[in-house]
Design brief:
By secondary structure, the chain is mostly helical. The protein has seven helices and no strands. The model has no long low-confidence stretch (mean pLDDT 84).
Length: 209
């Protein structure tokens, strides 16, 4: 499997898991079937569309490849009919979200590097790809984005570290398909470990008087 094919497959898997997390949140928020589909599609495609607009890839990949629209629709349909079974997993939304975070961090960073961006810019776009859909999901669900809550566990930090690893490996010529998959697993595992251990980013520093 070529690196381009591996990245494409990873991105399609990311579409499914992010869409499922969006559909689950829509169901928990009491949305109807239209809202479920919209939230699933937005969660899956939002970050990637932002990335493609920034790097000048027009029209965005989401509107060129039918699979980009079809896979989130399938994920929304599966979740619509089987959400009681999925919800019984308890941490299903968090697991799916962590999986999408890892996969999108890798694919977003690689696509930015392929477009000729520098390492810093690619890292920023990799993180934007990973967290953008989740932020849009929370806004549409009328919730404060999880990304900005100091009481929530690390979210953007695992993505940032993963994007740096991918950028360094890419520039060094070490980013083989297995390494890309490993980086995605690292980011997802870091996010889940942060949830388990309660790791949080610090808030504003307060001066004691």
């Amino acid at each position: 499997m070529s690196p381009d094919t591996a990245i494409y497959v990873l991105e399609l898997i990311g579409l499914f898991v992010f869409a499922m997390s969006g559909a689950l949140m829509a169901i928990r928020s009491g949305f109807d079937v239209v809202g479920i589909v919209v939230l699933a599609e937005t969660t899956a495609l939002g970050g990637g569309v932002l990335r493609d607009v920034i790097i000048g890839d027009h029209p965005p990949a989401a509107f060129r490849d039918p699979l980009y629209l079809t896979i989130p629709l399938v994920a929304a349909t599966v979740t619509f009919f089987f959400h009681p079974q999925v919800a019984r997993l308890g941490i299903a939304v968090l697991i799916f979200d962590a999986g999408g975070l890892g996969l999108y961090t890798v694919t977003g960073t690689v696509k930015a590097l392929d477009a000729g961006l520098g390492m810093l810019q690619a890292v920023i776009l990799g993180v934007t790809t990973a967290v953008g859909g989740g932020v849009l999901r929370d806004v549409l669900a009328r919730q404060t984005p999880e990304l900005f809550k100091t009481e929530n566990e690390l979210y953007a930090v695992p993505s940032t570290i993963g994007a740096i690893i991918v950028a360094v490996a890419y520039q060094s010529g070490w980013l083989l398909p297995a390494a890309a998959a490993g980086a995605a697993v690292f980011v997802s595992g870091f996010r889940l470990l942060a949830l388990w251990r309660g790791w949080r980013a610090p808030g504003a520093w307060a001066v004691r008087r």
